[in-house]
Amino acid sequence: MDINLALDSRVLIIEGISGSGKDTFQAYLKEKLKGRDVYDYSEGELLHSWKHFPIEGILELRVKFMKLFVNYLKDIVSRDENAVFLLNRFHLSTYVSIIIRQPELEGEYDEILNVLRTLPVHVFILQLDENEIEKRSLHSERPGVWHKLQQQMATRDGFGNRFEKYVSQQKLIVEAAKRQQIPYSVIKPRAPEIGGGWIHVPEAQSIFSRGVQINAADTKISPKKARSSSKFVGR
Question: Model-level pTM greater than 0.85?
């Protein structure tokens, strides 16, 4: 699938575990969207910053905020044909948190999905190979309080360490995307020895368009086209 086709959508959501390259990919998409009215939101602006995680009641607040936010973006998209929303983390990251900690919020979460399904949405899921997760999610530049919090959260959620948690989260994100019937693409970082950047992984995804599932084999792109549509390097 050509990334430019996905950019025709009006709501672009970037999902993935820590270290998968979401910020870099967001900057890349924003550059590709020049000329449009881009409503650009970081993960912190969407209440997904790591600094929010320890706050009591954050999941309830996040779901309440999301319910207001989807109605807001629906209104903007309906009134401004040049508007496009670019969101760093949104529904899938929230789902992974909800099903682990507070499954009673799933009903309200489904209300959010119902609104998203009425909109021209495309989700980019940035996925790492398991042998890359530990290295890319290390974030040595972040303060000690971040590393301490990650271990505390992993332990609280029943994992032995951060790596086990991220492996589980990555699987849950893709499994949820397959069920939700919202258009999505799975993208992996290209190895440095073949030029860096990113490549679509059609064999690892299900793409839905207007409620009709498209066979993954029909979405395959040539290596040459993949290179031409992935000229940036993830972090």
Answer: no
